[in-house]
Amino acid sequence: MSRLSKLLQFNAGETLASYCSRLAAACGYRHARSFATDMGFSFQKVVTGDAGHIRTFASVLDVSVNHLSSGIISSGGKMHEIAGEKFSRPSVQRLRLRFCPLCVREDEHLCEGRRGYRAFGRIDWLITANRACLKHEVQIITSEQFPSSKFNHDFAANLAAERECMETHLASLRHMKVDALQLYMHARMAGMKTSEWLDSLPIYIAATTCELVGGIERHEAGFLNSELDQVELSACADVGFSLLQGDESNFREFIRRRADRYFSTRRYAGGRSMFGRLYEKLAHHRADPNFEPVQRVMRDEVLNNVPLGPGDDFFGPVNERRLHSLRTAHVTFGVHPKRLMKSLLNAGHISSGTARTHGRTVLPADVMENFVRDAVNGITAPEARALLGASRRSLDSLSEHGFISVQGRKEDNIRTEPRYDAAQIETFLALLRSRVTCVPTAKLVPLLNAVHVTNCSYNALLDMIVNNELASVAWDQESVGLLAIRIDPDEVLAMTTEPDEFVNLKTVEIEIPSSFNVVRALVVDGHLPSIKRPHPKAGIPQTAVSIKALASFKQTYVSLANIARARGTRTRKCRSYLEARGIAPSFVAAEMPFYLQSSLPKV
Ligand SMILES: [Zn+2]
Fold it and tell me: Is the pTM of this model over 0.90?
C-alpha cells in the first residue's frame, strides 16, 4: 500500500471514478483528469473500465486490481456493465451527480481518511431505477447542475460544487420507502437469483418492464413517465415487480388480462390501445433488441387471445392467425357476419350468452375455417339430393347413419338451412364406385328394388357394399349417384336368410296338409308343440312349430280327411269303415278326427 491509498480508503459500493476523484482532490488537484495524467493513466479510461489503465492506477496505489474490482464500471458501445449486470446508457445517470444528502453528511463521520474528502460516490446512485437510499429511506437527489466536460465523473469536484445547495437539499428531503424492484436489483447485483423470469432478462430490461407494467396498472395504458414524480414512479416499479416476480406465466397473465379488455371496449385491437406505453416503448423504431424476449411473450399471448392475423401489426406484421372473429372471418371468407353468427349459434359453437359484437365473437382460427367451409359454404339439401340421386327421406337416413354429415340445426328458435359437404358426398360415391365388381346385367337390380325383395334396409345394403361383402356390384353409367348402383338380390337373400329350424303355421297347413282352423286347434290343444318368436325379417311375433315336432306328429297321427284322400274314398264312408273295425280316433281337433298311424289297417 502506498501513502496515497492510506490517504483515503476505497469503500465497498464505491465507483472507481469516485475513488480516483477523491484522491485527486485530497492531493490538491482541481481535476481528477490532471491527477491521473500525472500518475501515468487516463481518468476517462478508468471511468470506462479499461483494464490497462486500471492496472496502472492500482500499481500507483500499490494495491491489487482485485482490491478495486468492485468499483469498476465497464462501458462499451451502448452498454455499461456493473457487477456482471448489463445496463443501457439511459438506465444509468453518470453525467449529473446523484446522491443521498444524508449519506454524504454521514460519510464525514463514519469514514476514515483525510477530512473533507470522505464522502464517496455509490454505484447504487448511478442506477436510475434505484430511487431511494437503502439506508436512510429518503429520495436519492439528482443535481440540477450539468458539469462541464472537464468535471465529468469527477465526484469530489461535483460534490464540492453542490455544497452550497446541501442545506436546501437536507431541508427538503422526501421520505421514500425502498420499492420491491430496487430491493430485487440490489439482491441480484449481490449475486442472488430470486425471480425466474426477470432473472432471465438483462437487469435494466427487467427494471423497465416492471416500471411500465406498474405504470399501466396504476395509471392506465396511456400514462406518461414524465408526468410522474419519483415517489409515484417508485410506486409503479413496486406494483410492476410484485406482478412479474416469479416465472414467465406471471407476465403472460398480465398480458392476458390486458388483452381481455379488448372484449369490453369498442377500440381497435392494437398494441397501443391495449398496452399503451409498454407497447410504444418496445415497438419504437429504435427499441432496444434486448426487449425481444418481452415482445415474444406479449405477441404470443396476444395472438392467443385477440383475433389478430395477417394484415395486422403487432411488433411488426402479424403472419399467422390463431383466432378468428366474425368480422375477420367475414373479411377472409366473404361470409356475412350475421349469417355466420346464426350458424355458429345453431351449431353450438357459441351460445347466445357468450355472443358479442361481430369483432368480439371469436373462435379458434381452424375451427372457424372448417366451420365456414362445411356449414356456410356447403351445399343445400336439394343440391345434396341431386348429387346423391336420393329422396328427402334417404338423405336424412344417410346422414343419420353417418354416411354423410350435415351442419345446421334448430336451436334457440333460430333455424338455418342444413348444409352438406359436396366433397364428402363425392368421396362417399367414389368409395361405393370403387366396390364395383362387374358390369350391369338383367339379374342385377337398383338398390331400392333390392330393399323390397330382400327386406333389408337401404343403409344395410350400402354397408354391405362398403364392407366388400357383395360379390356382384355394378354401376349403371346412365344413372345419377346412388341410383347407379346395381346388386344381386338373390345374393343378398342367400346371405341374410339363415337356415331356420322352425316353420310357420302356413307351412304346417301345407305340410300336414290341413285347414287353418285344424292347425290352429292342434296348436291350441297342444297336440302339436309350438313356440312364440319374432318373425326373422319383419320382427313381428308369430307362432312357429319346429320341423322335428312336425315330422314326429306326421309319423304318429293322420287326419280322417287325409286317410280318405289316400284311399280314394269319402270321409263319412271312411269313418264308418274304421268304426266297424273298432278303430276310434285318438283325438279330434276342430271337428277333424286324428288317428294313430299305428292303429290303421294296412291298405
Ligand atoms: Zn442515505
Answer: no
